[in-house]
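To illustrate the input format used throughout this study, we show a single complete record. The first block contains the structure-token representation of the backbone; no residue identities are included at this stage. The design step must infer an amino acid for every position from geometry alone.
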């Protein structure tokens, strides 16, 4: 089987979902996650004068320095009776400077005559001339044959002519679209066979899920020779959604042995799925194939017995191969191995039977039952572990914080926050105003910490989202705040949960800034590395290992977690 390229359209087609509305920050975050996973093409949106957000995306995405993915700008063929170089939308595509341009054109004669109302011959010229024009300004041009399968069923000769027109224009891929989502898998197979006989350009597939067959139809197309699959992570999209690229990637890898760049990152599949859900601010599907929380959950009876004896007797793949975990619903040890894996990076050599693991599991379960979600808030998980292991002493104590909401004479709401901290033996009391309560709290907290921890000047609050977790009384519901912090090197996610939205926000702010303080303590990181080296060196005797005592590590860790000002005084 030839290599299969994955083309993600979460930022454009996925954004047409009625529950999704992506900001510029959301789009950039998603692009980074997709690139890190190994997605080959990322469709950024449709840049045009009426869509300034997407125009800005194509300017900003260049600054991300993506490692692998190619960025594609989306648009349509030229309008009837206009030269390509004079068409406003095509010129905007060129102005985006995206290396890849993807344009759609009409394949169904009904759309040509009754929707855009032009001649069949003019439509063919619109396709060929538009592709040829964009080829002069692009690394690749991908042609999406809109409504291709419906068009083929209505008039196969003309539908094929539209593909030949794009081929003559120099398209890199001809993507067959099941735009209405009504085609059956056997129809996909037979039409793919006919298309393969008539064109030599690589073929792609783009399906919608209106009949619940988007994934099956995509796989059928690959089986028939398609080497590009377009879809959306987690299957968001207009109406019933797009083909779920998460499931497709796993099926191609595990069931069809397809060659893909993402094959090397399949163990990160669940993390990608959860990460995208978090950014779009939607709850994850617990029953999602491969990545859902229940995908490898077993509840009682023969299933648990069988899995414990021979896991493959009741599981089609190893859950860890996609970053998921086997869960025994009736077992107190559910999730234990996954926690141990995460702990290995912090405390190498830790055993699942260690009382620390048991305690952490209990705490994690309590918190997740309360609404925490550590899979998409890794920094919160690490802070919890560091605290439970006694490897991080709080750098400051919160004495109190206060918020005042006021509306001035112009009717403008103003938030004012005061924060009082004890840092070492000193008190830092600061007041700040903000556009809202969280902005004011964030500003006051940083202001109080900055004299003692200069690294605070480098920290950004890149994203902030609130999700109501459900309650019989809406205003009394638990809420989860999810935030993304960043600096000039990385980003990290933290969460806060409470029935009080301000408290949930405050918990997230505290963890986000404490995580930066922890990360900035380079000596502390070296200490952990030293512990790791000891655990990994099998030649070290047990007596030598004992010399690296936990008590000594604790003393050093506590010293390193003290505020900068206090440490400077001690040197004097």
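Output of the design step:
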């Amino acid at each position: 089987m030839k290599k299969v390229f994955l083309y993600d359209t979460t930022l454009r087609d996925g954004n047409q979902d009625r529950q999704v509305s992506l900001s510029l920050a959301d789009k950039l975050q998603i692009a980074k996650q997709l690139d890190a996973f190994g997605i080959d093409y990322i469709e950024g949106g449709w840049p045009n004068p009426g869509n300034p957000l997407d125009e800005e995306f194509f300017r900003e995405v260049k600054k991300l320095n993506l490692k692998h993915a190619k960025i594609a700008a989306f648009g349509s063929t030229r309008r009837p009776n206009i030269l390509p170089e004079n068409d406003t939308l095509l010129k905007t595509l060129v102005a985006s400077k995206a290396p890849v341009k993807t344009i759609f054109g009409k394949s169904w004669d009904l759309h040509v005559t009754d929707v855009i109302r032009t001649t069949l011959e003019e439509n063919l010229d619109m396709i060929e001339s538009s592709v040829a024009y964009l080829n002069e300004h692009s690394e690749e041009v991908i042609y999406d044959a809109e409504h291709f399968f419906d068009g083929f069923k209505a008039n196969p000769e003309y539908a094929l002519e539209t593909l030949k027109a794009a081929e003559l224009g120099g398209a890199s891929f001809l993507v067959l679209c099941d735009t209405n989502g009504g085609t059956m898998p056997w129809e996909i197979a037979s039409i793919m066979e006919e298309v393969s006989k008539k064109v030599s350009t690589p073929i792609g597939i783009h399906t919608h899920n209106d009949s619940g067959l988007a994934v099956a139809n995509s796989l059928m197309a690959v089986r028939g020779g398609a080497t590009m699959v377009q879809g959306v992570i987690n299957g968001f999209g207009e109406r019933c959604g797009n083909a779920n690229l998460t499931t497709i990637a796993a099926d191609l890898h595990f069931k069809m042995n397809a060659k893909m760049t993402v094959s090397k990152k399949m163990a990160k599949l669940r993390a990608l799925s959860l990460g995208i859900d978090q950014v779009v601010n939607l709850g994850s599907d617990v029953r999602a194939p491969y990545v859902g929380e229940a995908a490898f959950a077993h509840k009682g009876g023969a299933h648990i017995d069988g899995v414990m004896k021979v896991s493959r007797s009741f599981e089609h793949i190893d859950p860890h191969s996609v970053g998921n975990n086997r869960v025994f619903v009736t077992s107190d040890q559910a999730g234990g191995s996954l926690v141990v894996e995460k702990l290995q990076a912090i405390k190498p050599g830790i055993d699942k039977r260690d009382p620390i693991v048991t305690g952490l599991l209990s705490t994690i379960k309590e918190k997740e039952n309360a609404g925490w979600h550590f899979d998409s808030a890794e920094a919160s998980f690490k802070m919890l572990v560091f605290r439970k292991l006694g490897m991080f002493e709080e750098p400051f104590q919160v004495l109190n914080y206060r918020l005042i909401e006021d509306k001035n004479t112009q009717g403008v709401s103003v938030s004012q926050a005061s924060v009082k901290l004890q840092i070492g033996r000193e008190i830092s009391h600061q007041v700040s105003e903000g556009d809202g309560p969280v902005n004011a709290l964030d500003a006051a907290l940083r202001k109080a910490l900055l004299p003692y921890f200069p690294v605070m000047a480098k920290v950004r609050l890149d994203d902030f989202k609130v999700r109501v977790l459900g309650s019989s009384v809406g205003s009394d519901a638990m809420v989860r705040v999810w935030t993304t912090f960043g600096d000039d090197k990385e980003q990290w996610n933290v969460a806060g949960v409470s029935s009080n939205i301000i408290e949930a926000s405050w918990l997230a702010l505290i963890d986000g800034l404490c995580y930066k303080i922890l990360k900035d303590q380079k000596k502390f990181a070296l200490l952990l590395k030293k512990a790791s080296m000891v655990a990994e060196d099998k030649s070290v005797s047990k007596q030598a290992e004992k010399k690296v005592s936990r008590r000594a590590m604790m003393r050093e860790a506590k010293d390193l977690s003290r505020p900068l000002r206090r440490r400077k005084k001690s040197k004097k």
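Structural context for interpreting the output: The first helix runs from residue 24 to 37. The first strand starts at residue 5 and ends at 8.
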